[in-house]
Write a structure and sequence with these properties.
The protein has 324 residues and is α/β, with parallel strands linked by helices. The chain is built from eleven helices and eleven strands. It is globular and about 60 Å long.
């Protein structure tokens, strides 16, 4: 999954957070720094979540954690790096839906469900369906009515072919029977710019990528695919509220370790992340950025990964999307 490189004020501040060393001996062998490998460019939601939680862990007498960005190949490069790292608990991977989606589009050198041990889900966040505020569409119903009246004319842009947001588009298209043309972009930013320039009708993007334009009134949010309304956008309905109950998708960001990491270290990592995610300040910061707090760890997080893998795999199959 690729994320927008544009940083609004909240994300720019969060992404520059430095982690305090607390003096806590992280591991019996001497308190080495734990690195969290980000398989995306810095500055996006996954980066911000990881840094906020890592700072909280450090400030609460936990280990020093640093985020290292290793982007490329829709997260494959960084994720493969983690799969091949020493299973000593000192290298963790930051994962998102691309973690379970990529195997349906390309052959990988790792198996996401077998070569990793899930630690915790940090948070989830839904994509938003947005249009230019000057457009005639004020609701999802308006957009779908126009799509049915003019099959194939309306266009929707999001991240490139093979991304999880393309699968959300396919999910919406299948549920609504609306003939909307998919337009792939290299990231959320060019897709949003195309909406603002009236080059495409609508876009699917995460809240962080459109927060500034929504607040300035340049964009209008029609719906979110979340299971409930986003705290930061209380007036934006869910797609389910519009009558399409099967269209629910929330993108997770979580942390995983190489599969052979000892259970004792996995348990310690889970305790650190669980405590950090329960902190009121983390919950407040996440809510302000349009995130739903996570906290599902171990087997519960593994179940999320398994369910998402099946859900998105079914969409790929039903939409007859090709391997790259």
């Amino acid at each position: 999954m690729q994320w927008s490189k544009r940083k609004n004020l909240a994300f720019a501040l969060a992404a520059t957070i430095l982690f305090a060393v607390s003096g806590f001996a992280a591991w019996p062998q001497g308190g080495r720094t734990i690195r969290m490998v980000l398989p995306f460019p810095p500055g996006g939601p996954a980066d911000v979540m990881a840094r906020l939680v890592a700072q909280q862990i450090g400030s609460a007498s936990g280990p020093t954690m640093v985020v290292e960005s290793h982007p490329g190949a829709a997260s494959e490069i960084g994720t493969e790096l983690v799969s091949q790292a020493a299973a000593d608990g000192d290298t963790l991977g930051i994962i998102s839906p691309s973690f379970v989606v990529l195997p349906y589009f390309r052959k990988l050198n790792y198996d996401p469900l077998k070569d990793f041990k899930p630690i915790c889900a940090l948070a989830t966040f839904p994509p938003l369906l947005v249009v230019n505020s000057q457009s005639p569409y004020h609701s999802l119903a308006d957009l779908l009515e126009a799509a049915h009246a003019r099959p194939g004319v309306l266009t929707l842009g999001t991240i490139e072919v093979g991304s999880v947001t393309e699968l959300v588009f396919e999910m919406l298209k299948q549920a609504t029977k609306a003939n909307i043309t998919f337009v792939p972009f290299t990231g959320y930013t060019p897709a949003i710019q195309a909406v603002l320039g009236n080059q495409i009708t609508a876009a699917l993007a995460d809240y962080s990528s459109v927060q500034g334009e929504l607040q300035s009134g340049k964009l209008r949010a029609l719906a979110t695919t979340a299971s409930k309304r986003v705290t930061a956008l209380p007036n934006v309905p869910t797609v389910a509220e519009a009558g399409y109950k099967g269209v629910e998708a929330e993108f997770f960001v979580g942390v995983a370790a190489p599969a052979k990491t000892p259970a004792t270290k996995i348990s310690k990592l889970i305790r650190w992340f669980t405590t950090a995610l329960q902190a009121p300040q983390i919950k407040a910061k996440f809510a302000a950025l349009g995130f739903f707090s996570g906290g599902q760890c171990g087997a519960d997080f593994a179940a999320i990964l398994h369910n998402d893998s099946q859900k998105y795999g079914k969409i790929v199959q039903e939409a007859h999307l090709p391997m790259n």
